[in-house]
Specification:
Elements (H helix, E strand, L loop, with lengths): L1 H6 L7 E3 L7 H8 L5 E6 L5 H5 L4 E5 L3 E6 L1 H8 L4 E5 L8 H4 L20 H14 L4 E8 L5 E7 L11 E6 L7 H16 L4 H9 L1 E5 L4 H4 L40 H12 L4 E6 L4 E4 L11 H18 L7 H4 L1 E3 H4 L6 H8 L3 E6 L11 H17 L4 E8 L9 E4 L9 E2 L6 E4 L4 E8 L6 E8 L4 E3 L2 E3 L10 E4 L1 E3 L6 E5 L7 E7 L5 E8 L5 E5 L6 E9 L2 E9 L2
Parallel strand pairs: 8-9, 8-10, 10-13, 11-12, 14-20, 14-21, 22-29
Antiparallel strand pairs: 1-5, 2-4, 2-5, 3-4, 6-7, 7-9, 11-13, 14-17, 15-16, 15-18, 18-19, 23-24, 24-27, 25-26, 25-28, 28-29
The structure holds zinc ion.
Zinc ion binds next to loops.
Length: 573
């Protein structure tokens, strides 16, 4: 906390009263100049004010009586009408000299691993990711999951022993720096990739993770923000993307709907939602800076998640391990380094809540350093404080209940819904994923009752499944088809658009020759809520009216004599 206040020593001296009556375009223009965002702080008298303010500006930190925030021009125009006395702060992305950020050119070995004590240029970043993929082709694979608004690459490196198979093992994701000026995790993730790749086969802890998990790492989620000052330096990095949008307020929100910030989904947001939808991620973390805390869901509401005690357990492990390896006073904010997000301050439209609610993935927001961009000379120290916790958090994905769900008759894997009685709420249930039928439910110690269900199958409940910390309980489950004598072969995924949908969804027939089809819409419990028979004579697409469906998640199932196709869709009114 003390470090936060030291920020104010670096404050630009500009302080002015902003009042609704006097704010006008000229003032705003001179305040912003060519800048897309400004950084400032102000006093509040009551923490309840935050819940209103968080819908207007991008709050970055809340202390006992101060709020630190960013705003673009239109956000600040709205905010200025509220009459707070504002102190403008120097942009965290412009605090350091080039010498503090970069090693002199030429000191890095461009063809090999680096000492992670510098902030790479954009090209060095891309080259390094390519270097990893080319040097360790049997252990990793580089994927471009999209491009930013300014056409920079959104890169994800997958690290796994069986790199080309999507087998029955957990999937884990680390992503950093969606706020482009919070860079401790950016370098930390590059360092982690190198640590995993070079340690495989010699370091037993690393080998265990790489053997048993598909690990996905995206070191830089907002390259346009990070390189807002140009591709050759991170000096001038911004929180927002190049459209002046805070990407961590741009996601669908469990309480406030699909566009809680009033902006369209940015390229970066769409890319990450698409990536998550294409996987079956069990756990993830999203690295930030400006504070030092393991901030677990929810951010948007005071209600606790079903798995709150598990979050406290893994959060304590993360923070306490840092306390063991870091200096006194580091990573001790809020409850000695952990907090549920809302208890700190409400944030709406964040990635963490989106991932938990819509992707059934346990994602946490981890704030790694009060100083958003520490001098390059400190980066190796942060790595030494943090990396045991990076590894511990990944390892947690191996524990809990996991197994494969298959069809009793055919032995084929199934996409099934796994619900825990008297426990799951607010989308905390998980699903097995195709093509392996693998599911993975991380959960706190206890004895649990699990119900497995899939459209077209009898549900099965298994009671008294015992879980202890640091152990996996393996539970393979077979489900019996509702349809006697008919092999319910899973033929593939349907193409359906749009999702989310308001009124009509378009279902593309997966087989073009004329056939009689049965169309079912099932709720998340596998109960059919709509059923009809259709024929695709000469038609490629069937339009289904979903205006009468309540907002929520559904499965659309299209079946013919050969088998079934399905797809999860979202209806949102
Ligand atoms: Zn952040």
């Amino acid at each position: 906390m003390k470090k936060i206040f030291s920020l104010s020593l670096l404050v630009l001296i500009a302080t002015l009263m902003v009042r609704g009556q006097t704010s006008n375009d000229n003032q705003l223009n001179s305040l912003f100049g060519s800048k897309k965002e400004i950084y400032f702080k102000f006093h509040i008298f009551d923490k309840a004010e935050v819940n209103k303010l968080t819908r207007i500006i991008s709050i970055d930190n809340v202390t006992a009586d101060e709020v630190f925030a960013y705003a673009n021009k239109s956000e600040f125009e709205k905010f200025s009408k509220l009459g707070y006395q504002v102190t403008f702060l120097k942009a965290p992305g412009s605090m350091l000299t080039d010498a503090e950020l970069m090693k002199p050119a030429g000191t890095r070995n461009p063809s090999g691993p680096a000492a992670w004590d510098f902030y790479p240029t954009y090209q060095q970043y891309v080259d390094t990711m390519v270097y990893f993929a080319n040097t360790y082709p049997s252990l990793c694979k580089l994927d471009t999951i999209g491009t930013s608004a300014e056409n920079r690459l959104l890169l994800v490196l997958e690290i796994s022993k069986d790199i080309n198979t999507d087998g029955p093992k957990p999937q884990f994701f680390y992503t950093s720096s969606m706020h482009g000026d919070e860079l401790t995790g950016y370098i930390g993730m590059l360092h982690l990739i190198e640590y995993l790749l070079t340690g495989y086969g010699t370091n037993p802890a690393v080998s265990k993770l790489v053997d048993s998990i598909q690990i996905f790492i995206n070191p830089l989620a907002n390259p346009d923000g990070t390189y807002a000052g140009g591709n050759n330096t991170v000096n001038g990095a911004t929180r927002y993307n190049s459209n002046g949008v805070d990407l961590n307020r741009n996601y669908p929100d469990p309480v406030y709907g699909l566009h809680p910030d009033g902006n369209p989904w940015q390229f970066e947001t769409v890319a990450f939602m698409g990536f998550a939808s294409s996987k079956g991620l069990t756990m993830s973390a999203n690295f930030h800076g400006g504070a030092e805390v393991f901030n677990y869901p929810w951010d948007t509401q005071p209600k606790l998640t079903a798995d709150n005690s598990w979050w406290v357990f893994v959060g304590r492990e993360f923070a306490d391990t840092i306390h063991k390896y870091g200096p006194a006073g580091y990573f001790t904010m809020l409850d000695n380094g952990i907090s549920d997000g809302y208890a700190w301050y409400q944030a709406i439209g964040g990635r963490q809540d989106y991932m938990n609610y819509w992707q059934h993935c346990r994602e946490v927001t981890i704030e790694l350093s009060v100083n958003k961009m520490p001098p390059a000379s400190q980066l190796v120290s942060f790595w030494n404080y943090d990396y045991h916790s990076y590894l511990n958090y990944i390892e947690q994905v191996l524990y809990g209940i996991q197994g494969v769900v298959t069809d009793t008759a055919t032995g084929l894997p199934l996409k099934a819904f796994v619900n825990i009685a008297n426990h799951d709420i607010d989308s905390s249930q998980v699903y097995s994923r195709m093509p392996s039928g693998f599911y993975d439910r991380v959960i706190d110690e206890g004895s649990w009752s699990l119900t497995f269900s899939a459209p077209g199958y009898y549900s099965k409940t298994i009671n008294n499944v015992a879980i202890t910390h640091y152990n996996a309980t393996h539970l393979n489950v077979q489900l019996k088809s509702l349809y006697y004598g008919t092999a319910r072969l899973e033929q593939g995924e349907l193409t359906i658009y749009p999702s989310p949908a308001k009124t009509d969804v378009h279902i593309v027939f997966p087989e073009t020759d004329s056939k009689k089809w049965k169309l079912d819409v099932l709720n998340t419990m596998g109960v059919s809520i709509f059923s009809s028979e259709i024929t695709n004579s000469g038609k490629l697409i069937h339009v289904l009216d979903v205006a009468g469906f309540a907002s929520g998640m559904y499965f659309v199932v299209l079946s013919n004599g050969n088998g079934i196709y399905r797809k999860q869709i979202l209806v949102s009114h």
